[in-house]
Write a structure and sequence with these properties.
This protein has ten helices and 17 strands. It has 378 residues and is α+β, with helices and mostly antiparallel strands.
Amino acid sequence: MNQRIENLYHRSAEHSGMQHQGELLPIAFKELGTASEELLVALEQLAEQQEQLVESRTQLEAECKRYQILFEQAPHPYIALDSTCTITSVNRAATRLFDCTHGLLLHKPVSILVPMEARREFREQLKRRQQVEDDQEWLTRLYSPHREPFDAALTLTVERDAWGNIVSSCLCIRDISESQRARAQKKKNTEDLFCDRTRHSFSKGENIPLQPDALWLICKGWVKLSTLTENNGEVLMGIAGKGIPFCRTLTVLPLYQVTALSQTVELIAISHLELAHSPHLTQLIAEGITQRLQQSELLLSVCGRRRASDRLLTLLQVLKTILGEPVANGTRLSLRFTHQELAEASCTTRVTVTRLLSELQHQGKITIDNTNHITILE
């Protein structure tokens, strides 16, 4: 409109005669009318956009309120942090956990929840976790002026902007002090159980007899559970370590033998009668049997592979799960296996296993050290 009025002004200045000015008025009115109509259309559009903005803001406020309610009523304690790891929000579960009000935690560095002597390490750990994309849980001890320090499991979730800068983060806290105490008590009870009984020792390669009225519980070392085929071939049924039970009543195989794999294997005998009257023993044995069942499923997955190379590679992965020890370049099997033992476990021949192990070494999937221990490379 300003531009049009300016043009009309210049045109009127150029024509000083009354006749020309009389001709100019209708043009001016027409221009002003057109501009007025455009203004009305623009006002209608602005009003419509204003309504949309108001509606969007109402929806956004309702959404924020809903998420705030979810945050407040979440069963686990949550603490929201800004980019400097300062506490910006705390839900009700967190205030109950630390036995304090929101005001005592808001706008404070999150490290105040850690005992003084551990704060530096906590800040470094938090900084490292912020650089990792995956949400990973780690254990630490937390502190509040209103309660004793307790063990907790923390999970950090980080929110970043389009440039990868940290905008905010959120800590999920699990109080594991009760479970830690229960685990410590269980470990003590188990150690007491092992200490108060006579230990039976067996050397590597020695067959362990199965007692009809008692089960064996492994205190130290590893044993091999196997059966024999009609052609005297050996079939691996499992590898048992500390805390794993075995006995005659846990198998229906007519030919079943247990062989010591470690240099020294120590066992304790538990009678079936005692087992029936001891809840702690029953729970311990049940956990060991569960591990045996899981291991049996892994070994069954080996037999399901058609090609011998796949069976051997799957067997090595199973042994890695059972016997693996982390090393610098991968996972080392803590026990030594002969090519014949690997062949029997993978349902193939010793010659085939020797060839396949050599191929796996050349492919960079495994290494074999001078003590014949296999390391599965990452």
